[in-house]
Specification:
- The complex is a heterotrimer.
- By secondary structure, chain A is an alpha/beta fold.
- Chain A has twelve helices and 16 strands.
- Chain A has helices at 20-30, 45-56, 70-82, 93-108, 133-136, 151-168, 193-199, 223-255, 280-293, 311-317, 338-347, 370-382; strands at 15-18, 35-37, 63-65, 87-92, 114-119, 144-147, 172-177, 186-189, 216-217, 262-266, 272-276, 298-303, 305-307, 323-328, 356-360, 391-392.
- In chain A, α1 packs parallel to α6 and α6 (151-168) packs across α8.
- In chain B, strands 2-1-3-4-6-5-7-8 form an eight-stranded mixed sheet, sandwiched between helices.
- Chain B is an alpha/beta fold.
- The chains are: A alpha/beta, B alpha/beta, C alpha/beta.
- Chains in contact: A-B, A-C, B-C.
- β9 (216-217) of chain A pairs parallel with β2 of chain B.
């Protein structure tokens, strides 16, 4: 529950204990989002509720369209963004899947919409718990995807997301884990409005709809020209890592903290490097530290940006690794864990290709405890090659 | 001597790709005269996604946003919000959707927007099938009509959905039927809708020569027969009050005159025509009853 | 000229598909397989009018409020609208396409309204339209025999062509049968005088009281460049029954002439009138106004009566008694009463006029008594003064359609040269002969010229293009009812002229009908379909899916933009009056 008196004015640092979803709401508030359009789905609902509350109290001066489905939520955001205002939506799981058609549209229309997705499993059977399959199965839609480890990162990433999106004219998906982040309270520094305004200027769209300008948007495009538009989207994606780094650099200097696209942590040289994304990384850090203290040559890599796939940065991060272990809290049926697959593809052209151990764990909210992580790392240490493309952790057998 | 009095502004350029005799082209041309220049028009997937021409061209002389098939109501809601935020409150937001994008796949989005009473004019250009993809049936296809998915030996078995009743029950301020053979009526209704706020719905019947299997010169005549046979009566619902236009209060002509001119009904036997007539008569009685309440 | 836009390098393109131009470079006219075009056609009224009036056009001017313009337009063809509007048998109304929808347009009433309106114009403007290139009087002189409708129409057009025209009239007054045969309750004298004076005002010399024979011979006219004989048919046909040539038996023509010239007539209180034509009816109606009691005896039934239907109706309203299927075979006199022995008739097979032949019913004789008898059994010409060489047959002069007789330079027309004995036919023949005379004097081929002036399929001609070269000519396509689109018309009653009520009506010879007024005339004119004539209703412009009907371009009020017209044909179908034609276009 937010209280007006608690929100910081001026430049003072103020930490509050808030959930991941609340952090999203504050990020949206500070970003001066002008149009919010969302449909409730567990575990995203408290984002929407928090925003409603902030709207009702005038803290969020956005128009709130209470649409009747997620597909319409994204369509309304597309309408609003084309109309030249900063738009926001949030969803999860089936809601994101329902939006799928419109995700393609948003990126094709080069609209700097920010969507927060709370990672949740897809049914059937109905499952409301933490799973990355929903966001990762949208990786082909042309959206930038940024994953968050902590609630602070969630708030900060929302702010950075608008900067990146509006610089490059591509939509950004900010992802956080269900319940582990969304409903778990952590200490979060909520920056002042003034400070954020200095970092994030108002939206200045390139082709806003002008009622007096008779142009048509997004009309039929024949084979003669469609290729070039797609080329431009890819080119824009290729510029994203540099833009994101630049934005993070500015963020760091203003707010005193920042986030690498790919972060290498732990020992400089590791026999095994464990690659994770999202909240799982937090647990991984602890396990790796413990194992390193025990003398294992293990380190970790946190992947924040999954789209565009940061091959260069990952290559650098995996420098010197003998073996790579990936824990995917997701699966692409017929192939395996998605990060593992992307990694393998990213490493393919390198001369030195460390074996990639693709672990799949935690689907549908199955707890990934430190023991499970340790088991994965240990397995990797103990084997020269993985025993198959997919290594299931915690399977009942 | 009656002279057509319609605005002289032309916001539909020439060289567009509509078929010869396209009812929807007549409809758009007339509607644009009423909507005026300061209109942002949202076009979900339909024939009118193709007709203005491919990028980099457009024969529509107003701002147009092509949108996903499903999304007429939602996109309009977003555009409306954006324009208001940016100070363009007096710009009109309108949607031009087909029957598919209104009755079927777009119904959810329209229903949501109408329930919220979003501020835009929604025009359903109804040619009674998915014409753009080659004449497949929609829930706007009339009873017993041929389409590629309801062939002559197994024509459409269900009657046309009553979209006006559906929209009226959303408690929107204004809903009206219109068609190309009554251009002054069509223009009057859109101009009237322009003066209102909230969700305003126009159900516009546009004959389609290839889809209805009629010669290209018959589009306007069939539109008129649809009205005169009471298959498509002209009426308005304003704040729950019904007004049936005089043209529709005249005695109806037998529906056979309307059906026999269309290839998509050429397989109909006389008992089926009788059944159709009975349906039209019942539908008319229902309308009268609702109008009286 | 809109250009196509091409991009050869992706850097030239915007990063989103936002339109850059329109589609006007895409000439969709190439899609056409049929081509619409504006083409005025002849309405059935125009086609059937023996006088060659441009009815649809003068009605359009009334609709547009230009009554004077309507009058000027009529007088391009016909100098007698006030007369025709009152006495013509209006075949135009019989063919009027509106008659197939509700009621035909009361064209005669509109023609009359226009003339009556013009009579109130200041200075009584006369249509002085002359042929453009002729600026001074021509040297040829033309003699016209007979100042009736045919003769005076011929004089009128010849005067407009700047010829020196003299009309020789045997009676003391001009007008011919208009003066002698039509009573003033149908045609007021001031209307007749007004329209005759207007012709004289063009410089036509009318010499009255100059009958051919005693006062003047044909040879005396040799110095004239051409002669037009339109002496009419003023001799009564005889019944050829015993007692026909006795006292108190008069001819209808003589009776009417006396009445119309204001002379006294000695006639009894009860009168048997034998005949069924306009003369018989007019005789009966005059008698009623004189307080007499007429009984009309006609040998066939009402359907076969050649008199105008309205006249028959009015006569019966006024109290005339008509006995049908009755024919007198003998006229006796008994105690100063005429006793007609009559036979009942029955109808057998049709004769050469298409009417069923009356045959007597044997042993059906009966008697009718009356103080006087008037025989109105038809009229005949007096061909006695014809010069040698001019051929004749069956009581009329033989001429070509253009009026040429067998003798060069001598033309004939009107009732004198035809069995079509109506005012409108007379006017038409006078007009044709005027053109033929002009061609004769110039050495041109009259048939060729007349062919180019035909209205519909003829024989009427329009002289409008003769006087205004370069203008539109009449299209032979006559518009049928089936070619019109009734979707644009609402049923409406015809505005009727008012009639003087009975019993006042028969108290004198004042005019029975009164004209429409500006409002009723405009409304009646508004009912006209304008068959085959664009009246700028704007349907084509409204319904074109490709915005390819251009308004107000150059001289035409509407034009098709063939660069973009896809040939759908909607304009053709929705034109209520078939002013647009459609033809196939090969690709």
């Amino acid at each position: 529950m937010s209280e007006e008196s608690d929100l910081p004015q001026g430049g003072s640092k103020m930490k509050r204990i808030i959930t991941g979803n609340q952090a999203v709401a504050y990020g949206v508030m500070l970003s001066h989002v002008e149009l919010i359009s969302a449909y409730p789905i567990t575990p995203q609902t408290t984002i929407v509720e928090e925003l409603s509350e902030l709207c009702a109290r005038g803290r969020v001066k956005a128009q709130f369209l209470k649409v009747e489905s997620e597909h319409s939520a994204m369509a309304a955001c597309i309408g609003a963004s084309t109309g030249g205002v900063r738009a926001f939506t949030a969803t999860s799981s089936h809601g994101l899947a329902y939006m799928h058609e419109m995700l393609h549209w948003a990126s094709g229309a080069r609209l700097p919409i920010v969507l927060v997705n709370v990672n949740r499993a897809l049914g059937p059977g109905w499952n409301i718990w933490n799973d990355q399959s929903d966001s990762l199965s949208q990786r082909d839609t042309g959206w930038i995807q940024l994953y968050c480890e902590r609630n602070q990162e969630v708030l900060d990433t929302v702010l950075q997301a608008y900067r990146i999106a509006e610089s490059i004219s591509l939509p950004v998906m900010v992802v956080l884990d269900a319940f582990v982040l969304s409903h778990t309270s952590e200490a979060v520094d909520i920056p002042s409005e003034e400070k954020v305004d200095g970092f994030l200027p108002p939206f200045a769209p390139k082709y806003p709809v002008d009622p007096m300008k008779p142009v048509s948007y997004s009309g039929i495009t024949t084979p003669e020209y469609y290729l070039e538009f797609r080329y431009k989207i890819q080119k824009a994606m290729e510029e994203v890592p540099e833009v994101a780094r630049d934005v993070d650099h500015q963020f760091r200097s203003r707010f005193g903290r920042g986030y690498d696209l790919v972060e290498r942590y732990g020992k400089d040289e590791g026999e095994v490097l464990l690659v994770t994304s999202g909240a799982l990384t937090g647990t991984a850090r602890t396990v790796i530290q413990k194992m390193a203290e025990k003398g294992h040559k293990v380190g970790g890599v946190k992947v924040k940006m999954v789209r565009p796939f940061p091959s260069k940065e990952i290559g650098q991060a995996l420098q010197g690794a003998e073996k790579v272990a990936v824990i995917d809290r997701n699966i692409s049926f017929g192939v395996g864990g998605i990060l593992a697959q992307e990694l393998r593809a990213g490493l393919y052209h390198r001369e030195k290709k460390p074996p990639v151990f693709g672990f799949v764990a935690g689907l549908g909210g199955r707890d990934i405890t430190p023991d499970v992580i340790e088991e994965a790392i240990q397995y990797t240490l103990d084997h020269s090659r993985p025993d198959g493309d997919i290594l299931w952790l915690g399977l009942k057998k | 001597m009656k002279k057509m009095e319609i605005p002289s502004s032309e916001n539909l350029g020439r060289g567009h790709l509509a078929c010869a005799g396209c009812g929807a082209a007549v409809a758009m041309r007339l509607a644009l005269k009423a909507l005026g220049e300061k209109t942002v028009l949202i076009i979900p997937a339909s024939c009118w996604s193709i007709i203005p021409g491919p990028w980099p061209y457009s024969s529509l002389r107003i701002p147009v946003i092509h949108a996903g098939f499903v999304t007429g109501g939602a996109t309009a809601s977003g555009i409306r919000a954006a324009l208001d935020i940016r100070g363009h409150e007096n710009a009109l937001v309108a949607v031009w959707a087909g029957d598919g994008g209104t009755f079927d796949i777009g119904l959810q989005s329209l229903s949501g927007a109408a329930e919220r009473n979003e501020d835009f004019i929604y025009i359903c250009n109804d040619n009674e099938a998915y014409m753009n993809t080659g004449t497949q049936r929609s829930s706007a296809t009339p009873y017993l009509a041929w389409t590629t998915t309801t062939p002559a030996h197994h024509p459409k078995e269900n009657p046309k959905k009553d979209i006006m009743a559906i929209m009226a029950d959303h408690h929107i301020p204004y809903a009206a039927t219109a068609t190309i053979s009554y251009p002054e009526d069509l223009i009057r209704k859109i101009e009237k809708a322009k003066e209102m706020k909230g969700t305003r719905f126009v159900h516009l019947l546009s004959p389609c020569p290839p889809g209805w299997r009629i010669p290209s010169e018959m589009s306007v005549k069939l539109s008129r027969l649809a009205v005169r046979s009471r298959v498509f009566p002209l009426y308005e619902i304003e704040d729950r009050k019904y007004t049936i236009q005089e043209e529709s209060l005249k005695e109806g002509v037998p529906v056979e005159q309307y059906l026999r001119l269309q290839g998509r009904f050429s397989h109909l036997k006389s008992h089926e025509i009788e059944r159709f007539q009975k349906m039209v008569d019942e539908q008319w009685e229902r309308l009268l009853k609702r109008a009286r309440c | 000229m809109p250009d196509q836009i091409t991009f050869t390098h992706e850097s030239e393109m915007p990063y989103v598909p936002i339109s850059q131009g329109d589609m006007e470079w895409n000439k969709t006219g190439t899609w056409r397989t049929q081509r619409p075009f504006y083409e005025d056609k002849t309405p059935p009224c125009n086609a059937v009018c023996p006088a060659g009036n441009d009815i649809v056009s003068f009605i359009l001017r009334i609709v547009n409020g230009d009554f004077e313009g309507a009058w000027n337009l009529i007088r391009e063809e016909n100098p007698f609208p006030g007369i025709c509007g009152r006495v013509c048998f209006h075949p135009c109304e019989g063919k009027c396409n509106r008659g197939r929808f509700d009621e035909p347009i009361a064209i005669h009433a509109l023609e009359r309204f226009v003339s009556d309106f013009a009579s109130h114009l200041p200075g009584q403007k006369v249509n002085g339209t002359k042929r453009q290139e002729v600026s001074k009087k021509r040297k040829e002189r033309i003699a016209i025999i007979g100042a009736g409708p045919a003769g005076m129409t011929c004089a009128y057009h010849l005067a407009r062509l700047d010829y020196d025209v003299t009309v020789f009239e045997s009676l003391p007054f001009a007008g011919g049968v208009l003066r002698t045969g039509i009573p003033s309750y149908r045609l007021p004298r001031e209307v007749l005088d007004r329209e005759l004076s207007a012709i004289e005002a063009l410089g036509v010399k009318v010499q009255t009281g100059v009958p051919l024979g005693p006062a003047m011979k044909m040879e005396d006219l040799r110095s004239y460049g051409a002669i037009f004989i339109a002496a009419g048919a003023h001799r009564s046909k005889r019944l050829h029954v015993a007692g026909e040539r006795s006292r108190h038996v008069l001819s209808g023509l003589e009776f009417l002439k006396a009445i119309n010239l204001g002379e006294d007539v000695d006639i009894g209180a009860s009168v048997a009138v034998v005949g069924g034509g306009n003369t018989a009816i007019d005789v009966a109606r005059c008698l009623i106004r004189l307080g007499k009691h007429p009984i009309i005896l006609y040998r066939r039934t009402r359907e076969e009566m050649p008199a105008f239907e309205e006249e028959i109706g009015e006569a019966i309203e006024e109290g005339a008694e008509i006995k049908f299927l009755v024919s007198p075979v003998r006229i006796r006199e008994e105690k100063s009463l005429k006793r007609l022995e009559c036979l009942r008739m029955k109808l057998a097979e049709r004769d050469e006029t298409g009417r069923r032949r009356p045959v007597p019913v044997p042993e059906s004789s009966f008697f009718i008594e009356a103080e006087s008898v008037i025989v109105a059994a038809g009229e005949e010409t007096d061909l006695s003064f014809l010069p040698r060489g001019v051929k004749k047959r069956d009581g009329i002069v033989l001429t070509q359609t253009n009026g040429r007789t067998a003798v060069d330079g001598i033309f004939a027309g009107g009732d004198f040269a035809s069995r079509e004995r109506t005012v409108a036919h007379a006017i038409g023949s006078g007009k044709r002969s005027a053109v033929a005379i002009d061609c004769y004097l110039k050495g041109e081929d009259p048939e060729k010229v007349l062919q180019s002036l035909l209205v519909g399929n003829g024989p009427s001609i329009s002289v409008f293009p003769f006087f205004h070269p370069g203008g539109p000519s009449r299209n032979p396509h006559v518009v049928a009812f089936e070619e019109l689109n009734m979707d644009y018309f609402e049923k409406a009653r015809s505005e009727k002229e008012t009639k003087y009520p009975l019993p006042e009506r028969i108290k004198g010879f004042f005019e029975v009908t009164s004209s429409l007024n500006e409002r009723t005339a405009s409304e009646e004119a508004g009912r006209c379909f304008n068959c085959g004539t664009c009246n700028e209703c704007e349907n084509c412009y409204t319904f074109c899916p490709d915005a390819s009907i251009l308004k107000g371009a150059r001289s035409l009020s509407h034009e098709v933009d063939y660069d973009f017209c896809k040939g759908c044909g909607i304009c053709f179908t929705e034109c209520p009056r078939r002013a647009i034609s459609l033809r196939e276009e090969a690709r």
